[in-house]
Each structure stands twice: as structure tokens, then as C-alpha cells.
Specification:
The chain has three helices and no strands. It is mostly helical. The chain has a domain of 49 residues.
Length: 80
């Protein structure tokens, strides 16, 4: 039984280390992307595209449908 507990602890430890490495690498990639193209510049380039649609141009029923599918508690945790 002690061996099984040790194996489980080892697997958990390896999983934690793997997640930490994954998160660290993701953060490094994010920082590289931000340094390459600042967010404000990226937003401006997206807004310049012909197919960019402003939020007030999107039908209300579409917005509600997206919220219902993505996060039906959206309004509950956006109220402060």
C-alpha cells in the first residue's frame, strides 16, 4: 500500500511540474507576442478590416444567443 501511495504522489508531483512548465511557456509566448505587436496596434489593425463589426451593429438576439451558449451566468457575475 505504501508503494501505491508513493506512486500516486509521484504522479501528482509530475503533473504539477508539467502544468507549471506549460503555464510558464505560455506566459513567455504571450510576452513575446506583446513585444512583437502591442495590443493597441493589434486592435487598430483589426478595426481597419472591411469585415469588422462594431458591437452596436450586432443584433441583440445574436448577443443573447452567444451569451447563452458560452456562459449563461454572464450577467450574474458581471453585476457589481
Amino acid at each position: 500500500m505504501k508503494i501505491v501511495k508513493r506512486i500516486i504522489k509521484f504522479i501528482i508531483l509530475v503533473a504539477i511540474v508539467a502544468v507549471l512548465i506549460f503555464v510558464q511557456r505560455g506566459h513567455e509566448l504571450y510576452m513575446e507576442a506583446i513585444l512583437e505587436t502591442p495590443i493597441a496596434e493589434k486592435v487598430a489593425s483589426i478595426k481597419e478590416k472591411n469585415n469588422y463589426t462594431y458591437l452596436d451593429e450586432i443584433p441583440e438576439i445574436y448577443k443573447k444567443a452567444v451569451i447563452a451558449v458560452e456562459d449563461n451566468r454572464f450577467y450574474a457575475h458581471t453585476r457589481h
